[in-house]
Amino acid sequence: MTTRWGMAREERPGRRVNGHSMLCPYKIQTKATMSIETFSPLPLNTFGTWVTLLDPSDVPPGMSPSLADVQFFPGGVRTRPGLASQFAVLGGAPQINGLKTYITPNLVQRLLVLDSFSNFYKESSPGVLSLVSAGGTPNLYLASTTHFGREYMAFADGLMGRDIPRQYDDVHFDRVSQIGPAEGPAVADAADVGNISPGVHQVSVIFVTRQGYWTVPSPPVSWTAAGGKKVNVTNIPTGPSNIVQRLLAFTAEGGASFYQVPATMTINDNTTTSLEVDFSDTILLSGVSMDYLFAQIELPNQLGVVDYVERLFWWGERAKMFNLRNLTFDGGWDAVVTGRPLGWTLDTLFGAGGSRESSNVVWGDAYRITADGASTARGMIKQNAITDAAGNPLLVANVDYSVRARVQRSANLAAGTMRINAFSPTMGQLGTGIAVTAVQATTAYQEFIADLFPPQTSLPADLTLRVYADGTPAPSGESFLVDNIEVFETANLQNASLVRASATEAPESYDGVTGIQEIAVNNGQGIRAAFVLRNNLYFVKERSMYVTATDGVNEPALWAVEEVSNKVGTPSVRGVGFGEEWVVIAGRSGLYFFDGSVPMKISQEIQPTWDAINWQYGQLIWVQVDTQHKQILVGVPMGAATQPNQVLVLDYTQGFEDPLAAMFSVAPERSRKWAPWMISANSCGLIERPNGVAQVFFGSNNASGKIYALTNGQLSDDGAAINSFYSTAFLAATGISGRNLFGYLTAYVQGAGSLALSAFSPGDIVVTALGNWTLASPSSRDMEQFTNVLAERVAYQFGTSAAGAWFSLTKLVPWAKPDPFAIVRGTN
Question: Do residues 313 and 152 lie in contact, with contact meaning Cβ atoms separated by under 8 Å?
């Protein structure tokens, strides 16, 4: 054969590189000199995926054993876009734990932000964040869905719900569902002539919220009507500030079903406390049935939420008891006895000092206990802990109970202890319960959890739950506040396999029986994520996946649930990314592609890297799919990190094919490509911008308090250099064995700044610097470099490491030949 310079040499086919047969010269018919004419090119025209599954020395040509902060494009590799700060630094420089685009009822696409202080913001105008709410539980993460013109939000620590579920309609930041009136009204025959039939009737009150939600009714109150008269309803409960109406519901004579006549039994305000009502049984029974409302529950704290067939589905529930009364203090207040929340009794000795608090609250109303500097105990309220208003059992024997509550103090409270415990007049106090001193409390709500009492062989019939402050709270005028009390079985902290489904087109209505789904209760895994794909609803547990779908007839409790996989799952509520009629699922064993058939692993080539994720904190992983740029971004806590400190990026521009299998095909470059980005971010979102473009936003966790956007043309990370580099596979001219002299290097590369070139052999710890190329864009010619590196195999690394510098490489050609002096060393 004759070379391009007219020199003859003997050659035979060697290994394939990038689909091309490489020539392995055994005999050089010219003098051994450093002239380029004696070297053979080893062209690299494919710059493919990062591979850590193989030993670096075995990574095939066209792939990389080491790279960082690059992105791929057909035929090349380049520095990834930089990060540009989008807003002013948030107060206190918090971490950014949630980013989401919310579409308002007016179809405005609004950025919502949650920080680690639990401050909740919206983008009120482009580039400006406005505070919506402050004072929630800190260090929680946001999972949400947009539906019915609102954003429905769950706040969790990654494992279960830790704060009340919320809804936001661009004006009001309310909880999702709430308790109803904790007591019924007073009722008696009026003097006026009417149509009410003689006999026993019952009445209940329902709150109506500004979102149109009808709460669970109050415990019914009965009276015996004389007949032929109207009825006076007084002491009608009023609710928190979000209540816009109250409804009265009655039973017919001797009946047990409740009905409401909208024209005469509706109070269109939250202030009126009395109403005269008239009805006949015939008119009443033609009204609206209200029986279904009695089965409703207040939605507990949740891990995640998804919308499906005009319902909301929630999971990751923190457990609590439902039938204790008015533990959130949102069930109304006595209009006659000052300071008494409905459902509670004021203690005759120590009840003074309690009052309704409607401003400084977790949500709705709270209970304030004000010190007088003299009384031993203040604001004591109590309620029956053995049976509820309907006579159903509450606390029972042989169960360990705990209690949690949110407690705060006023600025100058210096003495006293806030207590929540169980007490029996005949047996005394059972257990310690919550005891928060003025020193332990702060001026912001904190959640305190304590054992209420250990298992008892029997419980006294006069057992009560008490809330009060003692230790002579002082000084006078200062106070404790308490909100959101929850009692729960200590051994059942969460309902890990339970799903709560709302009623159809009633996103706040949750039936305690028909609205429940249980997903593989006994497999020892919790539900972590859910998604909708092709009219099916999927629930993803930690290591398994299940599917259900509406049957068009029954409530969700009766829908069939089937197993999809007993191996593929995710530890994170944010561990599923949504593509184009497919999803990707980040699990302990890898990243999986799922389009409704069998899940397909798409991360095997970086398995050792995937295994190095700190899976103790796997619940903090997030996945985002940028369908416009065909990239999957997975934020992971790598190594010893306790929060996501790297983003593993999968480019699927040229498909999802396995690159290690594709190397044997005619088009090895047409496969998926991985790269790590050194970006620390607790959250990521594909955020719609005012210009109609969706942009990848990162919520920082680097104590900067900033929100960054991945921005084309940005040549630094908010002023810091992007240390981007790409390493080739180990190349050789001698085939599988023998020493090589790598004498020259050419490449077509564009960019700005200085491109550092280096080379290293398998096992090298320190790379050999080859010099630097000054980059330009566009570049008018190939770059060239003498190298003079002697080794069995060599990998080349190139990269930029200064703010404003970047590179884009589409061709690399090392020139090499067998060592002209000794193709083998002859010794170790």
Answer: no
Nearest Cα to Cα of residue 342 among 362, 367, 377: 367
pLDDT at residue 764, as a whole number? 80
| Burial zone of 790 (CB within 10 Å; 0-12 exposed, 13-18 middle, 19+ buried) | middle
Q: Strands (DSSP E) along 456-606, which ranges?
A: 464-474, 479-489, 494-501, 516-518, 527-533, 536-541, 545-548, 561-565, 576-578, 583-587, 590-594, 600-601
Tokens coding 720:
């810091």
Spatial CA neighbour of 65 closest among 745, 818, 793, 811: 793
Q: Which two tokens stand for residue 506?
A: 């009633």
Of the candidates 233, 232, 237, 194, which has an alpha carbon nearest to the alpha carbon of residue 218?
A: 237
Strand blocks (E) in 672-776: 673-677, 681-688, 694-700, 707-711, 724-727, 740-752, 754-760, 768-774
pLDDT (tens digit, 9 = 90+) per residue, 7-52? 333 333 333 333 333 333 333 333 334 567 789 999 998 999 999 9
Here the tokens at position 653 are 């521009």
Nearest to 500 by CA among 485, 484, 514: 514
Return the bridge partners of 8, or none.
2
| Number of other CB atoms surrounding residue 222 within 10 Å | 12
Which residues are CB-contacts of 526 (< 8 A; sequence separation ≥ 6)?
159, 160, 316, 494, 496, 497, 541, 542
688: left (phi over 0), alpha (psi -120 to 50) or beta: beta
Sheet containing 141-147, strands listed edge to edge, beginning at the edge strand earlier in sequence: 141-147, 150-156, 161-168, 173-175
- Residues 571/587, Cβ–Cβ less than 8 Å: yes
The DSSP 8-state label assigned to residue 729 in this structure reads: P
Query: Are the beta carbons of 53 and 606 closer than 8 angstroms?
Result: yes
The pTM of the whole model exceeds 0.85: yes
- Sheet containing 82-85: order of strands: 82-85, 707-711, 694-700, 681-688
As given in the structure block, the two tokens for residue 321 are 């008891």
DSSP summary character for residue 153: E
Q: What is the mean pLDDT of residues 208-224?
A: 97
- List the structure tokens of 306: 């998804």
